[in-house]
Each structure stands twice: as structure tokens, then as C-alpha cells.
Amino acid sequence: MKKYIWIIILIALGFAFVCNTNSPSAASESMAVNDSTQNKKTDERENMVEIKKSEEEWKKILTPEQYRVLREKGTERPFTGKFYKNEETGIYVCAACGNELFSSETKYESGSGWPSYWQPVSENSVRYVTDTSHGMIRTEVVCARCGGHLGHVFDDGPAPTGKRYCINSISLDFKKKDSGK
Ligand SMILES: [Zn+2]
Asked: Could you tell me which residues come within 8 angstroms of residue 130 by beta carbon, excluding any fewer than 6 positions away?
């Protein structure tokens, strides 16, 4: 009888040993997975908090013309937009949500009739959507925060990027930089 008890104790000890050696690594592995998902979530939060509103809410916030361009992917007539000829120093923000989009430092005269930039303020400020409307394949540029339609990006821009962000003035507001800075 004593023999059996010892065998059972030894088996139990062995089992406990195996569990102990396995569990820390398993635990740290799952911790690592949790850490990386948490980091990813934090990164996304830091990059951009998306704004989601119903179309009814947007209609209340935006003018009819802003709504037509920003929410229905319209285009303002060329050479008519308020920022086409704006040469002041500052930051262009989304007219719908205030997200910073383009710096005056990257604005240039493209001759297209729309404000044109060769780069957004950061890669996280805009998103890109393939647009196959009007029998063309174009890359639509939307505000990363509110999803509002801004314009399109083309590959015929100037150095250093070679990109032309062709943006509707009506999708933008302008924050003039304080003078003397
Ligand atoms: Zn926006």
C-alpha cells in the first residue's frame, strides 16, 4: 500500500513539474500576443480616431454644397474654389472634422483649377480608395478621420514625391499660421 502512495506522489510531483515548466512559457506567449494587440490598438488610437456620423447628421453640419462634395463625392467646378489661389502660410484642415490634411509648404500651382499639393501632412491624415467612376480608374483621397471625400491623387506631380493631390477647396478649411513664426 505504501508503495502505491509513493508512486502516486511521484507521479503527482512529476505532473506538477511538467506543468510548471510549461505554463510560464505559455503564459508569456499569451502575454506577448496580448501586448502586441494592445500596442496595435494604441497605435491606431494615436494615429486617428475615426468620426462616424449618420448622413442626416452630416446634412445638419455641412452646407448643401459641402455635403455634395464631401459625402456624395462631388467635384467643385475648376478655378472657382476659395483656396485655388491661396498663397498664405498655414495648414489646410478638413472642412467637416478639422483634421489637418495639407501644409501650404506642399501646395503648388498645377494649372488644374483645384488646390494641388504634393504631399499630405502625414500618411495617417488621409486614406486612399480606388475610384472606378466615370470610366476611369483613379485613386480617391478621403479624410482619414471622417471619411469625407477630398479629391484624387495622380502621379504627375512635382518632386520630391511626384504626386499631385488634387483637392476640392470646399472640402477644406484654412488655418493661417501666426505671422512672425
Ligand atoms: Zn474629416
From this structure: 137, 138, 139, 140
Residues with CB under 5 A from ligand 1 (ion): 94, 96-97, 99, 143, 145-146, 148
pTM of the entire predicted model? 0.73
Nearest to 65 by CA among 169, 145, 174: 169
Instruction: State the Cα–Cα distance between residues 137 and 133, nearest whole angstrom.
Output: 7
Q: How far is the CA of 38 from the centre of ligand 1 (A)?
A: 26
CA 51 / ligand 1 centre spacing (Å): 8
| Domain positions in the chain | 1-47, 55-176
Give per-residue pLDDT as tens, 8-42. Answer: 444 455 444 444 444 444 334 444 444 444 444 44
CA neighbor of 129 nearest in space, from 112, 143, 146: 143
According to CATH, what is the number of the domain 55-176? 2.170.150.20
